[in-house]
Design brief:
- The protein is α+β, with helices and mostly antiparallel strands.
- About 20% of the residues lie in helices and about 35% in strands.
- The strands form 3 sheets. Strands 3-2-1-6-5-4 form a 6-stranded mixed beta sheet. Strands 9-8-7-13-16 form a 5-stranded mixed beta sheet, covered by helices on one side.
- Strand 8 and strand 9 form a beta hairpin.
- The protein is globular, with a radius of gyration of 19 Å.
- The two termini are about 35 Å apart.
Length: about 250
């Protein structure tokens, strides 16, 4: 970690905080009626399935802590990794609408928001570099990488398209129930995802991708393994942290 992000790391952290936290992954802020809320996939909350989609109540305040934005509602606290933000460009103006009186000071406000913006941009560029390396390492000319989170409710986070050196990242909007388990790809093929041996739910969606001659990769960013079933191919297990080639276009 370098630059402003390195300066930002640890900013706002408090000692003696409990280890148990509610994590909101693949999140975005939205304005509903007169309040700002967050949508995303919930992790770490007892009694609720890992990865379930939620819409929080109105956000009362927030603070930066390490690489997270900590959102506080009237009865819950959510830790949102800046690297998990679906679109920080859309969230930034809404984030600036939330806060306490301390942020009315121009110098304090610029320090906080400037550091947050810098870290969000740095994490975005780091993500692009990592995805680019996947295709370069394999010598792929045309390919797609489907990034899933393996958990109780597996969900698709983004699709990365690669064409002769050009990289395009398509973040999947929130919520995306239709794309959670089964994707109907171009042509007559589909991709179905299972956690363990049981299919969580049989929903269907359409997502352009996977043209003939294209290499298809799957990455699992979750903590549970997932099983990928592609039309015309046998099931493939993708362990946490793995990137697996499901179909080679070579």
């Amino acid at each position: 970690m370098t630059g402003r992000a390195a300066e930002f790391k640890g900013h706002g952290a408090k000692k003696g905080m409990k280890a148990e936290r509610f994590i909101l992954n693949h999140w975005i802020l939205c304005e509903i009626e007169d309040g700002i809320r967050a949508q995303g996939h919930l992790h770490g909350r007892p009694g609720m399935m890992e990865g379930c989609e939620i819409l929080t109540s109105e956000i009362a305040d927030w603070r930066p802590e390490g690489e997270y934005i900590v959102l506080k509602t009237s009865n819950s606290t959510y830790y949102c990794d800046l690297g998990e933000c679906v679109s920080f460009y859309e969230c930034a103006p809404l984030l600036e609408m939330i806060g306490d009186s301390r942020r009315e000071d121009p110098d304090i406000k610029e320090e906080i928001y400037g550091a947050v913006r810098a870290l969000a941009e740095e994490k975005k560029e780091e993500k692009r570099k990592n995805y680019r390396n996947v295709f370069l390492k394999e010598g792929v000319q045309i390919g797609s990488l489907f990034v899933w989170n393996g958990c109780d409710c597996p969900y698709l986070k983004r699709v990365v398209n690669w064409n002769g050196g050009d990289l395009e990242i398509e973040e999947q909007g929130i919520p995306e129930s239709a794309l959670t388990v089964s994707i109907q790809m171009t042509g007559n093929r589909s991709m179905r995802v299972q956690r363990g041996g049981d299919l969580y739910r049989a929903s269907h969606g359409f997502l352009p991708g996977g043209a003939a001659g294209e290499s298809i990769y799957v990455e699992n960013e979750g903590k549970d393994s997932i099983r990928i079933n592609m039309t015309g191919a046998g099931p493939v297990c993708v362990l946490p942290g793995q990137v697996v080639c499901i179909e080679s276009g070579h």
